[in-house]
Amino acid sequence: MAPPTPKASGALRTIGELSAETGLPHHVLRYWETRFPSLKPLQRAGNRRYYRPEDAALVRRIDALLNREGYTIRGVQQLLTSEAKALPKNGLTTDLRRIRDLLVDALAADGPR
Hints:
The protein is mainly alpha-helical. It is built from 5 helices and 3 strands; from the N terminus they run βααββααα.
């Protein structure tokens, strides 16, 4: 059997895939979802979690702050909250532009038809 092909950088990741990439156990990822409101993976039937690229980036950031820089969970919560308040309120426009860019990249990678 051939090894699985690597996923594109913009592809959704299951909790198992993200766990393997980050080295964090599943239960830690699920716990962080309860402590960090901005970490909201998509959930499908059977509560199967799918992490978007921005969710995966947030997990990596939380991991770095907690496990490498010595922050507490409360400290990371306060940091993320203060950063969210500092962001401009046009988040929807930014999200839509990011989605558009992802679609353009995916179509370009797919090649002409």
